[in-house]
Hints:
By secondary structure, the protein is an alpha/beta fold. Helices cover 27% and strands 18% of the residues. The chain contains 13 helices and 22 strands. It has a ten-stranded mixed sheet, sandwiched between helices. It has a two-stranded antiparallel ribbon with strand order 1-2. The longest helix is centred in the N-terminal third of the chain and has 27 residues, at 171-197.
Amino acid sequence: MRYIDRSSLTFGGSIVGIAVATTLTACGGGSGGSYGSFPIATTPSAQAQDPCASMTGVTLNGGTVTGAQSIGAGDYTPPNLAPGEPSPLTGLPAFCRVTATIKTSPDSNVGVEVWLPKDNWNGRFLGTGNGGPAGSITYYTGLREGLIRGFAVANTDLGTAPDITTREGHPQRWIDFGNRATREMTVAGKSMVNAFYKTAPKYSYFQGCSTGGQQALINAQRYPKDYDGIIAGAPGNDRTHLNMSFIWNYKAFKAPGAALTPGKVKMVMSKSLATCVGKDGGSPTDTFLTDPRQCNFDPETLPRCTSGDGDDCVTQPQVDALKKWYAGPTNPRTGERIYGGVPFGSEAVAYGPADQVASWWPAQQFYPFYWLFGKDWDYNTFDFDRDVDTVDAQLASILNANNPDLSAFKANGGKMIMYTGAQDPAVVYTGAVNYYERVVNAEGGDIAATQSHFRYYLVPGMGHCSGLDGGDGGTEFGQPYSAYVPSDPKGDILLQMVDWVEKQKAPEEIIGTSYTASGQIKTQRPLCVYPKLPAYQGGDSTKASSFVCKDAPRGNVPAPAERYLLN
């Protein structure tokens, strides 16, 4: 998705650009240390020559190292920051920054960046995901989060730099974006680890959200031996149909008289929440839904405008648009579902109706269609019958990661955690629920067997990827796009993954936290292994101890037609 401005995050009550909930000894110099259960292997720092200088001579298959730079501990402002990324990045350990360009085809230029801790490498490699159509290296939501934990960490621009919309007639670059750039980043990153530390990583992990979640599932399905542990957040794995849903929503709210102001959207959300809060297992004082599947809000009950068009009422065209938004795209000829509709209670969260008619939305989210139909393509002409088949015929096998067969990943000992926000109006949680249930069915129907290597968390009160994109629940748990590195390992999804892979300790409850503007804990809530959800037991609803994880219904979401789930 697009970048939200994160330049005013808090750290110890002051504005610094990156918020960290605790001091990390893993980020110190020279003497080693630990962070949670991450052992730190101290790399000799008193070498006669800075080893970073030698990285320019590393040979990459099909690629070229374009730069190697020693970066001192403290603050750092990378070049070519994407809009909205904080500057400078603060509290970083000393590291070697290596950049490379990989020619996956004569028409390709895949940018890769690898950050190598100079003193306190934890012996692990972390591949990280991008967002939206990419087009640049992701520093805040990619490289930063791994480096401060002691990982050697890599990111790629997915081959779409510098202009994401100018890829029409370049199918090799579509392949780069869809799957190949991530694989080449992984291979190059591990090569650089070997060259810098003179040893291979003991374990390799990948984490990403949104497009990064798509990359995560691509790794598990197509390259099952690349990573020992994978974290897939809000995966945009059904890419062609996800982006078709953006067209569907855009057209709905661009219809005459259908646009909703931010104030009107807040009113709509207040009404949907008032209908259902406290009736789905959550607390009656919640400002979000625990299980939107149990909500039966009817937009026809919204107050109607009798004169004017104020924020306290809606018109019939606006009700009609909301109905289309909640329903999701379907084939007008056959009635087949193409993609899931948007959950109740997410109306005023980032990427809701107010965002999905913004001027920047088409360029950021219609890019696959510009690639295929050309820069002059008009979204109004998109046919949700004929054009769906046209797009899928050329792009689905390249971009989508819908394959439920994870047998090779499981056989290699791989572990995967997937999570989505129940309040996400962009990459809606129903797609993840459907994918998880398809994996269970592919593995014989025993959910306990699937949970032995693949677990899913539905996060109440979280918007897209983290609390930075909306939501009042326990939205921070050490995931990509989170502004905080948790002080408690129970609240760090990456630590939980490490323990699962390296200690065979499968994750159960993960503590999700929301913070005040000054960085103090505001709310905590357990995140539960699907199909469980947190159930309110009484008491202080801001405390995780007031909830227990209880079984909830499995599935129970509209499923796309099978022909729209093929890769």
